[in-house]
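Complex record, two chains
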Amino acid sequence: MALTLEIVTPEARVYSDTIDSVVIPTVEGEVGILPGHIPLLTQIADGELRVTKGNEVHFLAVGGGFAEVESDHVRVLAERAITEDKIDEGVVEAALKRAEDQLRSAASADPAEFEYLQEMVRFAGVQLSVKRRRR
Amino acid sequence: MASTRDIRRRIKSVKNTRQITKAMELVAASKMKKAQSVALAGRPYAELMARMLAALADRVEESQHAFLTKRAVHTRGIILVTSDKGLCGPLNANLFKLVLDIKTPAKFAVIGRKGSQFLARTKRDLLADFTVSDRVAFNEVKVVAEFMVKQYIDGIVDTVEVIWPKFKNTLIQVPSIMPLLPLSSVKDAVTGLHTDSGTVPMPKSAVESQMLFEPDASTVLESLLPLYVNRQVFHQVLESKASEHSARMVAMKTAKDNATKLLGDLTLEYNKARQAGITQEILEIAAAQFSAA
């Protein structure tokens, strides 16, 4: 018995594999999915998604979207998703710093932009924590 | 008759034009391929979103959400998707014709420089203009879509519509207008997504009816609908990029063919002029010899 996990973003299919279990960050806390889970549709939060396959554990940073579980298929619809090995720490740190600077200087700016920057900061933080986990 | 030197000069300039248009054609062709593959890469997302919306559609009272309620239309809100650069045949002009047909009050948001120039020229109500890079990122388009949705929620515009060149095939791009908000129904949205992803709806399984929603169905729907709108606009921008590059490729191919034809005509004329010159010279030499003898 195995699960099929699929993660798609508007730009590409990021992940597609057969796995043993997955832990998904949702707005109401982490949800662990094992084979035979009941059908579920839930909203995901920015966070790390943990995939277990055999003895290996993979991490992905995901954000903004939904996850659907149906008869041993897990499908994640995310706005942003990136696998661990694709995260470039230097680039993310630079982006994080830029976004934080802008947040500080433009605290009273357009609320939409403010929200966007906060989102950037949050996701950058998630990416860094995923990347640094291994040490 | 023009002198041989003039003709030679023209041949040279036409040759240059041909070389440039040929290069542009090749560039557009490769960009078009890339744009098409990017548009295809979005298909799994559309398919999955259709599944989720379909699962939600029966569960939720449709009239609750602001996106689904119709109201009296005073001002239309239009997102106009154009290219940044010209030299792509009648692509943008065809879109502008659609814009000119709109007689009711409307406010615009524009993607692409050509569109904002046009709206400024015709003195229409431009709310904001955006540019996107050639390799369109979802984030760039999300900003545009969310801006327009905000205008809709705030009551500044009463509809959100998109005007964009719909990509049919390399030769045909149809300037189209599509209403985005208010959504007529969730079911229509699902059908639209299936068309975009090239899939057929799955038959409803018995399992799906027991699906659990977290936090609950209406909350999930409420956060899924904005994503749907973002995806829709993103898809249309990708399509307009594919249209732009194929229109440019076709326009450049025509230009190149015209240059080749012109070059043939000019070469013929040049040879004629050269021949006439030589004949003239021989005649003069012969005449001179006769008179000397």
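Note: The longest strand of chain B covers residues 159-167.
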